[in-house]
Amino acid sequence: MEKVRTASDLFVECLEKEGVEYIFGLPGEESLALLESIRKSRIRFIVTRHEQAAAFMAATVGRLRGRAGVVLSTLGPGATNLVTGVAFAQLGGMPLVVITGQKPIKRSKQGQFQIINVVEMMRPITKSSRSVVSADLIPSIVRDAFRKAEEERPGAAHVELPEDVASEEARAAPLERIRARRPSPDPKAVEAAASMIEAALHPLILVAAGANRKRVRCELEAFITKTGIPFIATQMGKGVVDERSAEYIGTAALMENDFLHRAVEYSDLIIAIGHDVTEKPPARMGYGKRKVIHVNFYPAPIDDVYFPALEVIGDIAHSLAALEKRIKPPAWDFVFFKKAKEALSAHLMEKADDDGFPIKPQRFVAELRSAMPANGIITLDNGMYKIWIARNYPAYEQNTVLLDNALASMGAGLSAAIAARLVHPGRRVACVSGDGGFMMNSQELETAIRLGVDITVVIINDGGYGMIKWKQDALSMPSFGLDFGNPDFVKYAESYGANGYRVERASELGRLLRECLGKKGVNVIDCPIDYSENVPALTDELARLAAGL
Q1: What superfamily in CATH does domain 5-170 come from?
Q2: Neighbours of 36 (CB within 10 A)
Q3: Mean pLDDT of 23-41
Q4: What does DSSP say about strands 522-528 and 455-461: parallel, antiparallel, or unpaired?
Q5: Residue 151: phi, psi to the nearest 5?
Q6: Distances (CA, A) of 207 to 274, 295, 314, 378
Q7: Which of 54, 91, 186, 198 is the most buried (most CB within 10 A)?
């Protein structure tokens, strides 16, 4: 006998079939039927204080699990508030399913009140955007949304559920979740790649965002162990391979003039593992004497900064395993790469123990790395500290440095930390956020308190938009338009029920970090920073030193 229930109940059954554990968001009048269906389900609904933060949380769940996170909003302003978080997932390759409500589509009592074309608004920033016009279409629409969000390249998929459709009777049944097997690479492509690598004099591996998937790490480590080829990482490729490795040179945190850029220039072949041109590129690759082998789940879009000579398309883990089996390492010359690594390592250590106050960024990153356990997770907002951490903070395990180098949005750090703690309740989690980015979604402190998550939030306090100041200064422009005032962050944290602390001297930071990471609840640290190092250390001095390598 057919099971008859409301369309909203069927919708939630489909979400349960997909293994959804959390839905983040803010409901509205048009999504109350769906909210009631969620209440009766085993899915945990987490109400946030802003839709943008909810999307950041859901995208982070998708990033960490490899299966789509889910966010819910109402129509109109609720949907428009989602846009930045949806674009964050789409550009960052994070699987996300977006659900929005809508006014009745068959008969409306409110004219055009709050109505915008959400489906069309979402289309440019998602892999698919559809409206449910019939209850019995829900199973196929939901299954398709999750499939599109999760298949390579991952991203966002949007489904609109109108209020009247949600209340219809439904007789359809949820579709089974199908596990798709990714294809193995073409053996001829593997043979050609192995021959190119063996023929190179100075091959170099680039580990990028697409390599940050389950299973890839084991095969990549085996390939590096057999060949001994040095590697660099993009910012979103950090931690795929333990960065304590002897073959690790560094992370591409800057666009040019770093020691690793000299290594890239010296190489005659780059093996790009999972590189995605959406991520800010580490260098111009594939032109002149330097050839690029593109190893990824999908072909490379041709770009001014990325032009592969050969593509090995298929499951990255399978491709690496096939290459590792086939390759016969000759006597490559890695002397210059080792020299570049030594010079970079020496530069990273400079001022790591500086006692000056406000704290130098080098000292801050050194103390943070010392305080965090190997599997501890740091989530970053977007600001000047992201450059310093990407460059100076070695990641030991996969997905332990969660930063965004694609959309590079401010305001995501705190939300990502909350989601990371939900996914990994047994791990230490710290958010590092600038004072500008923190205040964009600081209201989510209340969400963290309400959920009872244990996180440490470090606010890098310089009273301005530090990264843009660095660019402004580097262009010899006068300081203008980038300064602001801040609340008392200690009192601000305490007003939410969090613990608030302020760093008063450099020697306090390490102790305070370890203390907060070991405590229950939400702990907020106001950390004044001295960014006067930005131009001398990262622009003038570095360019001179790297040029002399």
Answers
A1: Thiamin diphosphate (ThDP)-binding fold, Pyr/PP domains (3.40.50.970)
A2: 16
A3: 95
A4: parallel
A5: -75, 155
A6: 7, 10, 16, 19
A7: 54
